[in-house]
Fold:
Amino acid sequence: MNPMFKRVYFFLAISLVLSGPTAAWAERLSVNVEVANIRTGPDTKETVIWQVEKYHPLNVTQRQGAWCLFEDFEGDRGWISCSLLDDTRTIIVTKEKCNVRTEPDTKADVRFTVDRGVPFKVLGEQGRWIHIVHADGDDGWIHKSLVW
Structure:
């Protein structure tokens, strides 16, 4: 290989390593406990900046020991203990006042209405619809365009 190309490849490889992980390399995980603390840093001594509920999906971008740095559906970042996460498939509602229906159809009865930011476990899919269940047991169908 030409020495010039070797230098270019070396520079690109170093740049990727130094730039750190990004959301493009994120691992999608979800909260597996009823309520989890989100902290400013990777330690229980760090400040709790907010809390999330069970099934909240997160894109983990970095691991540091037993801690995971993540980005959520709003682009907010924080640290969470990796032990509070697993690979359960989940979604979170991104629109205000969404209908969760009894069947995967806009003509089906509305089972309940949900606000932005509410997470659910995914039970299955049918076309553009997702069968979901909340941590409290409420289930139904929601359209894919309404979630992250």
Summary: Residues 4-23 have pLDDT under 50 and may be disordered. The helical segments are 3-19. The longest strand covers residues 57-64. DSSP finds one helix and 13 strands in the chain.
